[in-house]
Amino acid sequence: MAWPSDTFTPSNPSPTSVRSDRPRLIAPKYKWDVLPDRISKDAYLKSWNDTIFQNAAAYYALSPVVYHMDGASGILDNAREIKMRIKAFAYVARITQDTKWVNRTWAEIQVGIFTTSITT
């Protein structure tokens, strides 16, 4: 199974020539569009997809991470936890088109912004 060909061909190739399709992070739109079909036909991708969905569901059931000083690492462990959650929520939101994952992502971000602004 191969990915479809990329149709993006900038007229003036340079680092500032950007794709017009979105999202540009992680993968271009044409790959997101075929991913569900590929997942259904590839056992490895299905396992990978199922793991991300399980993680996202587990994170969803938890309260948003509150930034706090965590010993010698400061807030780094909290930031890593938030990053893991947001990546899982973003992936599931993109695959399912369910806005509850977007809303949960914003909840994580808002708690992080609010708690760091009052502790600094």
Low-confidence stretches: none
- Total number of β-strand segments? 0
Approximately how much helix is present in the residues?
A: 55-70%
Task: State the end-to-end CA separation.
Answer: 51 Å
Q: Name the overall outline.
A: globular
Question: Secondary-structure element order, as H and E?
Answer: HHHH
Class by SSE composition: mainly alpha
How many helices does DSSP assign? Answer: 4
* Average predicted local confidence, pLDDT: 84
* Computed Rg: 18 Å
Strand content: under 5%
By oligomeric state, this entry counts as single chain
Biggest sheet, open or closed, and with what strands and sense?
none
Structure description:
The protein has 4 helices and no strands. The longest helix has 21 residues, at 76-96. Helix 1 (29-41) crosses helix 2 (43-61) and helix 3 (76-96) runs antiparallel to helix 4. The protein is mostly helical and 120 residues long. The chain has helices at 29-41, 43-61, 76-96, 99-119.
Please specify the SSE layout and strand pairing.
Blueprint: H1 29-41, H2 43-61, H3 76-96, H4 99-119
Helix pairs in contact: 1-2, 2-3, 3-4
Quickly describe the structure.
This protein is mainly alpha-helical. It contains 4 helices and no strands.
List keywords for this structure.
mainly alpha; about 60% helix; about 120 residues; 4 helices
